[in-house]
């Protein structure tokens, strides 16, 4: 898709404005957004390819929800395309999996507070990120993306093009639509037990510990016991 | 000469009221509600529309520039460069294309845009070498400034 896209976009012709609601010239008329307007028959396939709505997959495992949301909001709006225009409705679908396994940095699981009000007196509710995540594993990502989208009437439509799944399981009909997997925004570091023994052996040693400096002797040393060491 | 009698009542009557009204209503035909039909409401709306149109001429320039910048950012990210890096390195390479042209190139001439991005990336690397290197390397090729005056 990424290879086909530059050439596919090459001939989105600046459309003569077909009458939708606007009549030319309007006072203060802006140039029309490049959108699916009349182009020649021979360029029809190219135009479809340029303006088609794509479905992207994003794995949120061990990712900070803010970075996930930044990437997703850009894709939903269509700002990743050079043909972007606010009126063109050129955003794509994004499917996010493993939202249950997102990873906040710092102490945000305990300290970040999500507030809401039911509308009734005394209905101010505040929950921590942990509590919200327990109640609904997709809520954190959904709220983050919702708050990152532009605050206009298009926001709800864009949220409808977002599909969140707490685990790896995706329904068949959505899985058939997926085009490309987006790279994860954060490089997940390997845990110590995920390294193979060969890799650990191949890693260069910074210093050679003397044979007397085992865990036991160091422990005695800390407790200031008299011990012969060299 | 003072007119006396019946002719005085018929001195002057507005005969082209229809066209005077149409002059205003023709600008209101695409409005919503009664203001596209009724003169009294249309006059107010049309005047506001003209005022907004006048003021919008300045904002149009801002809006279009922001749109070009968004499009250039999207296209340069496809090639692995961020917008500030792209634009600043293009200027340092003495490529004085304005944002409108670069945005149009990004849409209609993708290969040209790719070569512009490669140029900006190369100039960026040369800038890093010049700043962080020993100073013993030869100066970069794309960093040369050509004086046309």
TrEMBL record, chain A:
BP-aspect Gene Ontology terms: negative regulation of translation; translation
Entry keywords, A to Z: Mitochondrion, Ribonucleoprotein, Ribosomal protein
Subcellular locations according to the entry: Mitochondrion
Family matches, as InterPro entries: Ribosomal_uL13, Ribosomal_uL13_bac-type, Ribosomal_uL13_CS, Ribosomal_uL13_sf
Pfam families: Ribosomal_L13
Signal peptide: none
GO MF terms, alphabetically ordered: mRNA binding; structural constituent of ribosome
Domain of life, source organism: Eukaryota
Cellular component, GO, one term: mitochondrial large ribosomal subunit
Keyword Mitochondrion listed: yes
Principal cellular location given in the protein's record: mitochondrion
Gene3D superfamilies: Ribosomal protein L13
Family: Belongs to the universal ribosomal protein uL13 family.
Listed PANTHER family: LARGE RIBOSOMAL SUBUNIT PROTEIN UL13M, RIBOSOMAL PROTEIN L13
HAMAP family: Ribosomal_uL13
Protein name: Large ribosomal subunit protein uL13m
Organism, scientific name: Dromaius novaehollandiae (Emu)
UniProtKB/TrEMBL annotation, chain B:
Annotated coiled-coil segments of the chain: none
Key words of the record: Ribonucleoprotein, Ribosomal protein
UniProt-listed GO biological process terms: translation
UniProt keyword Ribonucleoprotein, yes or no: yes
Record-linked InterPro entries: Ribosomal_bL20 (IPR005813), Ribosomal_protein_bL20_C (IPR035566)
Superkingdom to which the source organism belongs: Eukaryota
GO MF entries: rRNA binding; structural constituent of ribosome
GO terms under cellular component: ribonucleoprotein complex; ribosome
Gene3D superfamilies found in the cross-reference section: 6.10.160.10, Ribosomal protein L20
Annotated family: Belongs to the bacterial ribosomal protein bL20 family.
PANTHER family linked to this entry: 39S RIBOSOMAL PROTEIN L20 (PTHR10986)
Protein name: Large ribosomal subunit protein bL20m
